[in-house]
Design a protein that fits this description.
By secondary structure, this protein is mainly α. The protein has helices at residues 12-75, 79-85, 129-231, 237-240, and strands at 92-100, 103-111. It has a two-stranded antiparallel ribbon.
Length: 248
Amino acid sequence: MAAVRDNVFPTRMNLTMTKTRLKGAETGHSLLKRKSEALTTRFRVIVRKIEDAKLKMGKVMQNASFSLAEVAYITGDISYQVRESAKHATFRVSAKQENVSGVLLPAFERDTRAGAGSQFELTGLGRGGQQIQKARAVYMTAVEMLVELASLQTAFVILDEVIKLTNRRVNAIEYVIIPRIENTISYINSELDEQDREEFYRLKKIQGKKKERAAAAQRETDKIKSTAEHDMPVRDILAEQVDEDIIF
């Protein structure tokens, strides 16, 4: 199976750009890996907190049910009194966000209004007031734990999705993107090496041709010189020199 690579023209500029892409991919992989590890650590902490909260929630709800049974046994049905006394919400929830490695996790907190408990002070005044206040305190604790558990569950769901997405990105970069870029770099290097070898062979052939031409020209010059020297007539210096007559 052929290596998967990008379709690029093998030039040194593309080689530099591809190496820059590889460095960016490795940096991104490192950052995403550390982000995944941080989110996984926080995810495990939240899982442990959810387990503890659910165990505590079971005990608190059990106590709340017993308290409500005591109230019903002593005072009877007080639901109509509670509805008449409740004028506004006495338990409010405020939401804020917590940033964990770039992920915003919602956190819910209790926001009790000042003086909210005064509207239930007269409930059970005739009988069972102590049991009613005890049941109210137990159920208030249960609602607080429900808010805490809702905050943990929401963070659990969000972190679970974000961790899956981050791990998919990490695996895609590690097993798809980086190998493809490395194959592209290997392809460009091999092509550039082949071009260098072809250029070296071409220059060597050109130099050889030049040497052959220079040698041929030198041989032609030597041949012309030798031919000219062979065809040149031999001068008879004695025949050409004429002595003057001497008169005695």
